[in-house]
Predict the structure.
Amino acid sequence: MTEDSGNSAGRAIPSGRLARLGVFGKLAGGVAGGVVAEGARRLANGERPKIGDLLLTPANATRVADQLSHLRGAAMKLGQMISMDAGDMLPPELATILARLRNNANHMPPQQLDRVLAAEWGKDWRRKFAHFQAHPVAAASIGQVHRARLPDGTELAIKVQYPGVKESIDADVDNVATLLRVSGMLPKSLDIAPLLDEAKKQLHEEADYLREAQMLARYGELLADQPQFVVPALYSELTTPRVLAMSFVTGVPVETLETAPQDVRDRVMHDLISVVLRELFDWRLMQTDPNFANYRWQPETEKLVLLDFGAARPLPAETGEGYRRLLTAALAGDRDAVREAAIAAGFLGEAAVLQHPALVDRMIDVILVELAKPGPFDFGDRAFVGVLREQGTEIARDRDTWYLPPIDTLFVQRKISGTALLAARLKARVDIRTMVAAYCDGAPS
């Protein structure tokens, strides 16, 4: 969830199929116009621009971000996933633009909100509350959150799904995929159909608030022995497939920890990484959306609040075992074993290893050097990221080597990458080797 700014205005979310298709049409037209304008400018300067360069201009990226923000739902969610998943590998300009999708504050106006809640709770729904705050306290891609108080004084957070989001998921994903294809960003040989099918499946799951309610309750149970975490309590009496009711938990953005003492930042990230390891190896259940807004910090209690469990998904045992073999090889400093484990687990495509063996080995060596350094891993030291980006970019230029890992691996890696990005933001120092070694049989600590 992204925190809403107090001065933002409501903007009706397009809910009908034709209305949403119209937004995509407007988007395509705007991008096409931008291509023509930019092409004319570059030709006038004596350049011979490629179509990909014209499509991926900051102006066109801004158009895409703004329109996806208006659509909300699957379209915006996919944009958020791109901006979060790519992490350090995105050019700074594009990362800044896509960040708009995580921070946009548009929300449903009161009239649209009233229609949604009347459909879920009945026309007299306001009688259920002593107070219901019309302006949302947070807004995200699939729903927005309101603060409410019951007659007995209980404070609740009410997440309300945007109208038309669930019904538009399949079409939105297909439309975004079409934009990617038309832009030339994806090679024709890359089969993204399985990824699109899985994206649709997960988005349908995230749009099922009864399922999220089960996951919320499950994580509350799993973390009951971890007092450093707070998980909201489910309020099932008011929960429906499109409305999720839970206890209201106070907290400030996790980014405020940037100014906290080093030991606090280190402890928070140690605890979060511990949860990721438990999810992967013990629970075989993972909340796969690492958006920073899903974490809140309570300065008064020094506890971390965990929010939004719509993206929680079970993991097959082989996914965890693949990571275990890879990490065991990495801790042992065995480059060949790391490469073999990465291919076996689906992290690396065989084409990249066969066609660019030296580059792949250099990337592995960079990671092994970092892991072998004594003491806690310093997430604030990002010097090695530039080296990895340089090697990875060179491999990526060869589109014949592009490859999609197994779906479960993609989602796990999304969580790991997002957690690492937060650790880097907080400049945390964590003894990763010792933590990981506990899950790797025979690995040195």
Observations:
- The chain has 18 helices and 14 strands.
- The chain has a mean pLDDT of 79.
